[in-house]
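Quick start: load a record and inspect it. Here is phosphoserine transaminase:
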Amino acid sequence: MLAIRQSLARRSLAPSARALSAAAVEEPLAKPDSPNFSSGPCAKRPGWSPAVYGSAPVGRSHRSSIGKARLKEAIEKTRSVLGVPDDYRIGVVPASDTGAIEMAMWSMLGERPVDVCHWESFGKTWFGDVTNQLKLSDVTEFNAAYGELPDLAATRKDHDVVFTFNGTTSGVRVPDLDWIADDRTGLTFNDATSAAMDVDWSKVDVTTYSWQKVMGGEGAHGMLILSPRAVERLESYKPDRPLPKIFQLAKKGKVDEALFTGATINTPSMICVEDYLDALTWAESIGGLEGLKKRSEANLAAVANWVDATPWAHFLAKDPKTRSNTSVCLTLDTAPDNVKKMTKYLEDAHVAYDIGAYRDAPPGLRIWCGATVETSDVEALLPWIEHAYAKVN
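Running the structure step on this input writes:
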């Protein structure tokens, strides 16, 4: 708290004095208890230790009764924490969120025209895959620069729509899903990997995410959530292209139900499954999705208050309603090389790891503010950012 009070007192200084003199900002007295602000893999939940792996069925087949039971429990807890409707299928799939969204696109797109919405790196990748890999011809691109959203309402309800719920590399999220028609005939493909947000499940047909983002789990595993309409597409449409085994969600014209009851297409890590179960149990203990949102929004508020009082720091998201509450992206009034010096200084000081902007994004900082990060750590980080800024300038 002393470091925070020192930071607030320093804000009365003129911007030029704060920007030009390292002496204007002393090295803060306190550091974050956890310097892990990476946007993926993300910080573990508070109190985590490797002891959570103690009950993992290591050395056992994932197809054994205990292996299937653990995977089924992960599916059931996911449904409970996220409030997924009972008639939606949930499956554990390979290759993280990328694997989940790709297997859905490869298995279902091509039946009708496609609208792809993107405003950051990963959404742009999905557009590239739809046009260059799937080679679909009837594709409309809805794009915007970093920090902005395209006109989502211009998408067509009779088209399939692919979008990113929360832009990890831009810090721009979709504020709501009201733009998706209730009477749509196309499917909506929702890449939700960094989103700790309300989900109107009636608006989304395919939803994907990965364990290593909001839940702080381990990498290489993805989650695929399908509405009944998406299942109907899998059973009524056979794409005119070969599908690798890890993309095959249907067998003999029917959805492979085993994938949504504890079986998997390939071998998962049972240690990672145990880690995900631990994260879900923690999420339940803090109130489920509402608790995750509350913690994440408190972290965003801490950064927002600081940005409001700091003239050289700005949100990359232009509209406050679109600010991500997990992947918080900032631009700074300084040269790109200075930003790199700042992030290196903060890492060398063991204050903040991996907070540089994504390589394709405008130079700046990307601070993970998901639910597994303590607000006290965010508050302790901010005076250090001021100190680093003054030091490099």
